[in-house]
Amino acid sequence: MSALTFENLLRHVGHTITCSAHGLPPQNVVLNCETCDEVIVDLDADGETLFQLVPVTPEPPVMPPAAAMAVAAD
Predict the structure, then answer these.
(1) Own/partner pairs for 35-41, CB < 8 Å, 24+ apart?
(2) What's residue 1's pLDDT?
């Protein structure tokens, strides 16, 4: 499981993140949020890459409420 969206990663800003390898020789690498006890990225040695995990259709950006946006005067 991997949390590779902006919103999912933003939730972990300021948390304690660890990176660990599993197996001898290493067959798996995991980025884990120690604060939330949540796996952020989990990749196997079989050629799996972050690019394969990114959604093909990106999620739309989260826009601030209209009241919070500055309005330019004409």
Answers:
(1) 36/11, 36/12, 38/3, 38/12, 39/1, 39/2, 39/3, 40/2, 40/3, 40/8, 40/9, 40/12, 41/2, 41/3, 41/4
(2) 44
What SS3 state is found at 18? strand
Residues 9-67: pLDDT tens digits?
Answer: 889 999 999 999 999 999 999 999 999 999 988 888 887 777 665 554 555 666 666 65
Pairing of strands 38-44, 17-22: unpaired
The residues, ordered by sequence, that sit 6+ positions from 60 with a Cβ below 8 Å of its Cβ are none
